[in-house]
Design brief:
Helices cover 89% and strands 0% of the residues. The protein is an all-alpha fold and 36 residues long. This is Protein argonaute-4.
């Protein structure tokens, strides 16, 4: 591989793609808990 930065950027994008839905799920769970 002559472009190691490409895989690094991919990992960063992947981590963001995973973190954002996890945050949304956590917020949704917290919202349900506060409603009850």
């Amino acid at each position: 591989m002559k472009r190691p930065y490409h895989s690094k950027t991919f990992k960063v994008e992947l981590s963001f793609a995973v973190k954002i839905p996890m945050q949304a799920i956590a917020n949704a769970l917290r919202g349900q808990e506060s409603k009850n």
